[in-house]
Structures are given as structure tokens and as C-alpha cells.
Design goal:
Number of domains: 3
GO biological process, one term: regulation of transcription by RNA polymerase II
Order of helices and strands: HEEHHHH
GO molecular function: DNA-binding transcription factor activity, RNA polymerase II-specific; protein dimerization activity; RNA polymerase II cis-regulatory region sequence-specific DNA binding
Pfam family, one: K-box
Helix content: 55-70%
Keywords: Coiled coil, DNA-binding, Nucleus, Transcription, Transcription regulation
GO cellular component, one term: nucleus
Number of helices: 5
CATH architecture of the largest domain: 3-Layer(aba) Sandwich
Oligomer: single chain
Largest sheet: 2 strands, antiparallel
Number of strands: 2
Length: 191
């Protein structure tokens, strides 16, 4: 039975796409290994899946860095410096975000309020009031749940207490446990 040609386009079903990726990845790794063995080639293969998992294959006695360095030398480009610049830009952006978040945290703690305008102070006050309402509502729910749990425990204790009182009264009436209401007394007399 011959296989039909498949149309090369993105597979919409995520499960099918992941299965196909896994099978074809293994096929590519097998081909890379075959190239290494048959042609004595240095092969380095890096793949990143749609779930951001990194898979790599490097031929024995080969380092990925050496292959990248050789690639850069052949092409006349510097991958590491451009990558470094991108990482440096990302670091600066993250530092700005971090400083902004820290400033907002200090303002919510009542510090660093001097530079804020009246509208900023009103906005901060509004945010604090809504946060207080959320906290207050949560505290009320927790307290209500604790009260309900305590009431249930108290009802259980009351039921156990009533049951023990009934048993104690029964013991007072028949301290030796000989009276059995509804039992067969003739069979007991035979013993």
C-alpha cells in the first residue's frame, strides 16, 4: 500500500502536531547520526518545539560551540555579539519593569508619594480601596467558613453526647447487660 502525499501546512490539531513533531524529530536525529557515521561529518542539530522544549543532537567528539564558531568564521558574521546585544536590551527592559513594580509597591506602602499628582493619588487611593474590599470579603468568607465548621463540630459533639447519655441511662437500668428486650429467653435458660 503506497502512502499518499501530504499537503505541507501547519497541522491544526495540537495533539496530532505534537505526535508528528516527535516522530519527525526522531527521524531527523537518525539522519544526522547516519551523516556523522557514513560521511565522517560533524553535525550539530538544535530544535525547539512549539512547547519551547529544546532538543539537540551533536555528533560524538564535536562541540556545538566549535561548530557555531566555524559557521561564523565561514559566513563572516558574529552570532554571539548580536545575541549579547539582544540579551542586553531585554535586561534593560526587565530592569525598567522591575523598578516600576518596586516604585508601585513602595507607593502602596505609603512611601515615595511626593512626586505624585492629585489624579495619581486619587487613582492609588481607589486601587487601595478596591484591594481592601477584596481582602475584607475574603476575610469574611474565611471567618464564615470557620464558624460553620465550628457549628458542625458542635452538632457532632452534641449528638455523641446524647448517644452516650442514652447508653448511660440504659446501663443504669440494666447494669449487667442481661436484659435484652425482644430476645429469646428460653434459649438463654437452657444454658
Amino acid at each position: 500500500m503506497a502512502r499518499g502525499k501530504i499537503q505541507i501546512k501547519k497541522i491544526e490539531n495540537s495533539t496530532n502536531r505534537q505526535v508528528t513533531y516527535s516522530k519527525r524529530r526522531n527521524g531527523l536525529f537518525k539522519k544526522a547520526h547516519e551523516l556523522t557515521v557514513l560521511c565522517d561529518a560533524e553535525v550539530s542539530l538544535v530544535m525547539v518545539s512549539c512547547t519551547d522544549k529544546v532538543h539537540d543532537y551533536t555528533s560524538p567528539s564535536t562541540t556545538t560551540k566549535r561548530i557555531f564558531d566555524q559557521y561564523q568564521q565561514t559566513k563572516g558574521i558574529d552570532l554571539w555579539s548580536s545575541h549579547y546585544e539582544i540579551m542586553k536590551e531585554n535586561l534593560e527592559k526587565l530592569k525598567e519593569v522591575n523598578m516600576k513594580i518596586r516604585r508601585e509597591m513602595r507607593q502602596r506602602m505609603g512611601q515615595c508619594l511626593n512626586g505624585l499628582s492629585f489624579q495619581d493619588l486619587q487613582s492609588l487611593e481607589s486601587d487601595m480601596e478596591s484591594a481592601w474590599r477584596v481582602i475584607h470579603d475574603r476575610a469574611d468568607r474565611v471567618l464564615t467558613n470557620q464558624i460553620e465548621t465550628s457549628k458542625k463540630k458542635a452538632r457532632n459533639v452534641e449528638q455523641i453526647n446524647r448517644k452516650l447519655q442514652v447508653e448511660l441511662e440504659a446501663m443504669d437500668q440494666d447494669p449487667y447487660g442481661l436484659v435484652d428486650n425482644g430476645g429469646d429467653y428460653n434459649s438463654v435458660m437452657g444454658f
